[in-house]
TrEMBL record:
Keyword Membrane tagged: yes
Protein source organism: Limosilactobacillus rudii
SMART domains in the record: AAA
Keyword terms: ATP-binding, Cell membrane, Membrane, Nucleotide-binding, Translocase, Transport
Compartment annotation: Cell membrane
A Pfam entry, by short name: ABC_tran
Protein name, UniProt field: ABC transporter ATP-binding protein
Annotated function: Probably part of an ABC transporter complex. Responsible for energy coupling to the transport system. Part of an ABC transporter complex. Responsible for energy coupling to the transport system.
Gene Ontology terms describing biological process: cobalt ion transport
Domain ABC transporter: 2-239
Family: Belongs to the ABC transporter superfamily.
InterPro entries documented for this protein: AAA+_ATPase, ABC_transporter-like_ATP-bd, ABC_transporter-like_CS, ABC_transpr_CbiO/EcfA_su, Co_trans_ATP-bd, ECF_ABC_transporter_ATP-bd, P-loop_NTPase
Length: 269
């Protein structure tokens, strides 16, 4: 579980981007947790605090009950628990060749070369990019680069994976792949925290939501609790997912998924 106690963060000691946030993420075994908020609301800042790239100005973060330690060793331990895939994949490229880049963190963990090779090939093949393993990353497409960045996090096998805007720059096929990939990670027992402006994607993918604004958590809950509040979404410059609009127009309750909708089919005629 990730616990935040009164977490505040400021880049310049004047404006609090995060202002006294207390949360327990993962207490209820949600699998895919969405963070929403308008441009500049502080989602990336929040994520960078979670992975120790930024240190809270006030308050603290506890992982499984233990406060994060900001020493080299403490941060190495933190990265085994929480990995992040940045919005811009170029931000996390360390080596020029795909397989070397994906293996980077495993070398840091001092795993034997055969084990590193095995893990890298397995993840590249799961992500359908094994044929790219000897290619220079700089010549890959944006979507392929994103998959390499995800591979670099997947090989670590961390319990938590943070995805900052995972669909940005992806075409519909890439978006569908991303959805499947998230499901695969969940099936592996990993927990996902993601942020996105793509409300339809959030709606389809996440099972719990936080709305970040004015440095605070303005709302949290499941789909029904968060997406039926049209006014709050509007105030935070967020769209209602199209499925929610249809449900409301037809006067149907907001179902969690397709199975639930069809299980209740006929009851609303
Ligand atoms: N390195 C930085 N130095 C100073 N201010 C920053 C820095 N990074 C972000 N900010 C400011 O912090 C605020 C929150 O930015 P952040 O990138 O966390 O928001 P976001 O919700 O992720 O936005 P977006 O949806 O546009 O990606 C913004 O006002 C931004 O200008």
């Amino acid at each position: 579980m990730i616990e935040l106690k009164n977490l505040s963060f400021s880049y310049d000691d004047k404006t609090k981007i995060l202002n006294g946030i207390s949360l327990k993420i993962g207490a209820d075994d949600h699998k895919v947790i969405g963070f929403m908020g308008h441009n500049g609301a502080g989602k990336s800042t929040f994520f960078l605090n979670l992975v120790g790239e930024l240190k809270p100005t006030d308050g603290e973060i506890l992982i499984d009950g233990k406060p994060v330690v900001y020493s080299k060793k403490g941060l190495r331990q933190l990265r085994r628990k929480i990995g992040i895939v940045f919005q811009n994949s170029d931000q996390q490229i360390f080596y020029s060749i795909v397989k070397d880049d994906v293996a980077f963190a495993l070398h840091n963990l001092k795993l034997p070369p055969a084990e590193i090779n095995r893990r890298v090939e397995k993840v590249l093949s799961e992500l359908d990019i094994l044929p790219l393993k000897d290619r220079p990353i700089q010549y890959l497409s944006g979507g392929q680069k994103k998959r390499v960045a995800i591979a670099g996090i997947m090989v670590i096998g961390s319990e938590w994976i943070l995805l900052d805007e995972p669909t940005s720059g992806l075409d519909p096929d890439g978006r569908a792949r991303m959805k499947k990939l998230i499901q695969k990670l969940v099936d592996n027992g990993q927990h996902i925290i993601l942020s996105s402006h793509d409300m339809d994607f959030m709606y389809e993918t996440c099972d719990y939501f936080y709305l970040l604004g004015k440095g605070k958590i303005l709302e949290q809950g499941n789909k029904q609790e968060v997406f039926n509040n049209e006014q709050l979404l509007k105030e935070n410059k967020l769209d209602q997912p199209w499925l929610v609009k249809i449900h409301q127009k037809l006067g149907l309750p907001l179902y969690d998924n397709e199975q639930e909708l069809f299980a209740n089919d006929g009851q609303h005629n």
